Every structure is written in structure tokens, then in C-alpha cells.
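Propose amino acids for all 97 sites.
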């Protein structure tokens, strides 16, 4: 089983546990969109590998978390939408120096 397969299974299991209200889309459909976003060719750092690294870190601290699923949703979506035309505050500061 590949890391992508594990990621999809992990995401769809999370979606099934926490998103129970119809008319929510199926978790596999949402994962396909998240996968497309994080594997876009312009993604240099905030890509699927970064998400997988963050999820490993969530696993390491899981016993300390009150709501692991909320944290995991945050990992999956924290940078799903990335507008390359807009600079982050850190990028803007770096370019102004």
C-alpha cells in the first residue's frame, strides 16, 4: 500500500467519523480534490509530503490531544488553497529587505 493510499484511507475514515450531515460530499471525492490541490506542480513545500509529515507528528502527540480529529482536519486543510499571486506576510517581509 502506498503513502497515497494510506493518506486517502486516513482522510476518508476521518471524514466518515466527523462529517455526518448530508448533503456533505463523499470523503473520497473531497480527498481527490485535496490530493489535486496538494500535488499541483507549483507546490514546493506545502505539498502532500508536508501533509504526511504533519500527520506523522500528530500521531506522535496524539495522546496529548483533546480532539485529535479537529487537529487532523487542520493539518489536511491548513494550506489547501494556495494563491501563488498573493504573498504571505513572511514572503512579503523577505522581499522587502
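Proposal:
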Amino acid at each position: 500500500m502506498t503513502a497515497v493510499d494510506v493518506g486517502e484511507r486516513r482522510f476518508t475514515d476521518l471524514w466518515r467519523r466527523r462529517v455526518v450531515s448530508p448533503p456533505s460530499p463523499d470523503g473520497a471525492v473531497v480527498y481527490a480534490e485535496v490530493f489535486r490541490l496538494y500535488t499541483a506542480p507549483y507546490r514546493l513545500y506545502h505539498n502532500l509530503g508536508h501533509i504526511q509529515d504533519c500527520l506523522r507528528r500528530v500521531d506522535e502527540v496524539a495522546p496529548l490531544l483533546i480532539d485529535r480529529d479537529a487537529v487532523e482536519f487542520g493539518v489536511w486543510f491548513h494550506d489547501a488553497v494556495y494563491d501563488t499571486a498573493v504573498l504571505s506576510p513572511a514572503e512579503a517581509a523577505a522581499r522587502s529587505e
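The mean pLDDT is 84. The first helix runs from residue 3 to 18.
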